[in-house]
């Protein structure tokens, strides 16, 4: 199967999120009446986001022939919680979705630590080669990070406005993940399997 161009994957992954943000910004002060019910901007943006994410995921699967387990889990939770928010006209379900995703990821990584299985390495080792100890440390750190993100999402959506949550979800969470990866650059270098002199330590 022909490998897609490098820019395709980021567009398919980030496009639906940015579209959700744009639709929300444009409609947050609007109300749309359908079937005798009034829907605010948050629900409108969610109703756009869910099918667009399904389409983007389907295109990615068609182009690459594969999807990561985390992508599949995320898609299922988006459909379930996004669908509930639109159906019940209640933004809370969609706002809880990141919490469920992060708790799921933390649980999977936590189980892999307890079972002494390198599940994270099995998924990412091709892009980020490290020795077993490096993967163990990264798995522990990512487990704690996902638990922290779940707690942060709960605090933000329960105590702040829709707009604040949307900004937090669209820009805050990706920034936290980026900072986390940068903070672990030393770990990646220290546990690279071909690091010079490593066998003498």
UniProtKB/TrEMBL annotation:
It is a multi-pass membrane protein. Keywords: Cell inner membrane, Cell membrane, Membrane, Transmembrane, Transmembrane helix. It is found in: Cell inner membrane. The chain crosses the membrane at residues 7-27, 39-59, 71-88, 100-119, 140-160, 166-188. It comes from the Bacteria. Pfam families: IspA. InterPro entries: YciB (IPR006008). Belongs to the YciB family. Plays a role in cell envelope biogenesis, maintenance of cell envelope integrity and membrane homeostasis. HAMAP family: YciB. This is Inner membrane-spanning protein YciB. It comes from Paracoccus marinaquae. The gene is yciB.
């Amino acid at each position: 199967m022909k490998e897609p161009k490098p820019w395709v994957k980021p567009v398919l992954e980030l496009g639906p999120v940015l579209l959700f943000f744009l639709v929300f910004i444009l409609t947050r002060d609007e109300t749309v009446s359908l079937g005798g019910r009034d829907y605010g901007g948050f629900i409108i943006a969610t109703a756009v986001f869910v099918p667009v994410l399904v389409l983007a995921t389907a295109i990615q699967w068609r182009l690459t022939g594969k999807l990561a387990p985390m992508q599949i889990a995320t898609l299922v939770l988006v459909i379930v919680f996004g669908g509930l928010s639109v159906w019940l006209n209640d933004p809370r379900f969609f706002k809880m979705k990141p919490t469920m995703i992060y708790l799921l990821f933390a649980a999977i990584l936590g189980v892999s630590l307890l079972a002494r299985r390198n599940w994270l390495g099995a998924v990412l080792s091709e892009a980020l080669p490290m020795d077993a100890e490096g993967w163990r440390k990264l798995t522990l750190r990512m487990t704690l990070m996902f638990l922290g993100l779940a707690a942060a999402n709960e605090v933000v959506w329960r105590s702040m406005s829709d707009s604040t949550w949307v900004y937090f979800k669209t820009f805050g969470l990706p920034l936290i993940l980026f900072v986390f990866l940068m903070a672990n650059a030393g770990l990646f270098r220290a546990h690279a399997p071909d690091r010079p002199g490593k066998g003498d330590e």
